[in-house]
Amino acid sequence: MTDSEYGWLLAGMVVVTVVPRVLPQWIWREGAGGRFVQAALGLVPFAVLGALLVPGMWTGMAHTPPAATLAGAAAAIWFAWRDVNVVLVVLTAIGVHLAVSIGIGA
Amino acid sequence: MEKLVDNVDKVVSKSRAGRVDMHGIENNRRATGGFPVESGISAGECRAEAVHNPRTANVCSHVVRAPRQGVGVRRRRAGGAGSRSCPSGRGKERRGACRRHRQGLHAVAKFDTIGALYFFINKGGHAMNKAGWRQGVAAGIPLAIGYIPIAMAYGVLAATLGIPSWFIAASSILVFAGASQFMVVNMIPLGATVPELVMTTFVVNLRHLLLSAAVAAKTPPATSRRQRTVIGALTTDELFSLITLRAERYVSAGFILALGVVGYTSWWLGTIAGLLAVHSLPPLLADSMGIGLYAMFIAMLVPALKRRPDARLVTALAIGGHAVLASVASALGLGPGIALLVAALAAVVAATGIQEVRR
């Protein structure tokens, strides 16, 4: 790709990213949609986070050993269940993943 | 000068009464009652006065910091009339320096980028909750520490795929959407065209409609449109999770903005760090850093599920639904973003329906 193609790509990416992000903030009105929508919105984070994790975690980490990904995820779940700080969860998962990767000689 | 001393007395007596928080910028504005603008007293004069009267020295710093004279008014006031009250406005440079005093740009210089952005976002006149802003910055630190390894991984990966450095840095600064950035740099070496790449980004980012709507529902109704726009532009999976998983009905706009700004800053700083470290970072470590993103999702989801057992059903439905849908998505011609959006929406509708029926 040429530099100008990269420039157009960048401009296009900015537009298609900003519009879906800003639009709901502009059109949102208090109490919109009634009780059902309000109840549903409370459940959205759980659904989105669950869907982001599975199967994204396996496909996103497909270039690394599956055992390392599994071990990293298990460590993260264990620490998160014990209410450990997010930073520690992240660093532990990276550490465990790296250790297992080295261990199995990836 | 009498006017100044009067004003200073007022401010000092207010602060003695304990009603003024000398450190809060919003409070400063209230404390000075627009002092620097309405009284026509410049910071220079104030400083000059402070030399003779040490009592006013403290107040002077408030004059300098007054947000009314923030970044927003720079252009309007940069004219010749602006140097009217500058006591030492002889040389061009001197006048420039004085202008900076009066317009509070010193305040911006004293803060970091985040502080400058605070001024910019807040200049619409809608007083933002400074305490919320501070808490947001604090809450953003784990977010930043989660982002930096992922952003570095992005910089390293993109550079090793032969993408120009300027594009890698600019995509993090201007686009700020991790998942689609990763996807695009993976597709470029495969020979994807610009329209294909933009369409992919659009499809991957469509889920932001859902995320942003949920964040909008948590944004206080009184939030100005400018602030809503900035919040929207800074909405990511992580900001959304941190905001929408909070128990309170509304989260202060300052808190959301601070979180967004900290996350955004760490994202592009991390990308640039990755670009700089591309030759020195062991590839194995770069690979492992990729798991940081998912670990962050786990760290948000698991404790929230402990607190809200009623949300376990929707999580299980979304995980199952997305696992199935993602495996057949390419056969159905669905992009990865659409599959996620459909699976999450279906899970939410189904779970809400079941909840309503049970009631």
Task: Please explain how this structure is put together.
The complex is a heterodimer of chains A (106) and B (359). Chain A is mainly α and 106 residues long. Chain A has a domain at 61-106. Chain A is built from five helices and no strands. The longest helix of chain A has 25 residues, at 3-27. Chain B is mainly alpha-helical. Chain B folds into three domains: 2-110, no CATH class; 130-307, no CATH class; 309-359. Helices cover 73% and strands 0% of the residues of chain B. Chain B contains 21 helices and no strands. Chain B has helices spanning 2-16, 25-32, 35-38, 43-52, 57-65, 74-77, 92-102, 105-110, 113-122, 130-160, 165-175, 178-187, 194-205, 207-218, 225-233, 237-244, 253-276, 283-289, 291-307, 312-332, 336-358. In chain B, 50% of the residues are buried. Chains A and B meet through helix 1, helix 2, helix 3, helix 4 and helix 5 of A and helix 10, helix 11, helix 12, helix 13 and helix 14 of B.
Name the beta content range of chain A. under 5%
The gross shape of chain B turns out to be globular
* Low-pLDDT ranges of chain A: none
Oligomer: heterodimer
Distinct helical segment count of chain B: 21
**H/E order of the elements of chain B?**
HHHHHHHHHHHHHHHHHHHHH
How far apart are the termini of chain A?
Answer: 33 Å
Relative helix content of chain B: over 70%
Structural class of chain A: mainly alpha
Estimated radius of gyration of chain A: 20 Å
Largest sheet of chain A: none
Helix amount of chain A:
over 70%
**Averaging pLDDT over every residue of chain B, what do you get?**
72
Reading the helices and strands of chain A in chain order gives: HHHHH
- What is the overall shape of chain A? flat
SSE class of chain B: mainly alpha
Summed over residues and divided by their number, the pLDDT of chain A gives a mean of 89
Characterize the main sheet of chain B.
Answer: none
| Strand portion of chain B | under 5%
Tally the helices of chain A: 5
DSSP, total strands of chain A: 0
